[in-house]
Amino acid sequence: MTEYWVSQGKKWCDLCKIFISNNPSSIKNHELGTRHKEAVTKRLSNMREEKVAKDKEKKETARVLTQIEESQETPTDPRFMFWIARTRTWYGNVLDR
Ligand SMILES: [Zn+2]
């Protein structure tokens, strides 16, 4: 029962890393506040940067794969061919673009 009352009293904002009072007007106030808005903006831009970095990494892998496959010296080792096929599956969406 104790936990119930604690959670009723406080609400954790993961973006701002602070507790706020768990009632509609406090939450609304907090979400309209400068600190929270800045935290939201920061979080969104971090997410965008991560996505860009991941896309870049995928494209680089795709490029290397294509290079290997188009190369005249493509190894015929079955294990290596399996690795290529598996990696192609992982990066499928990027390669299809
Ligand atoms: Zn917040």
From TrEMBL:
Keywords: Metal-binding, Nucleus, Zinc, Zinc-finger. SMART domains: ZnF_U1. One of its GO terms (biological process) is mRNA splicing, via spliceosome. One of its GO terms (cellular component) is precatalytic spliceosome. GO terms for molecular function: RNA binding; zinc ion binding. It is found in: Nucleus. Transmembrane segments: none annotated. SUPFAM superfamilies: beta-beta-alpha zinc fingers. Its main location: nucleus. Pfam families: zf-U1 (PF06220). Residues 11-42 form the Matrin-type domain. This is Matrin-type domain-containing protein. It comes from Artemisia annua (Sweet wormwood).
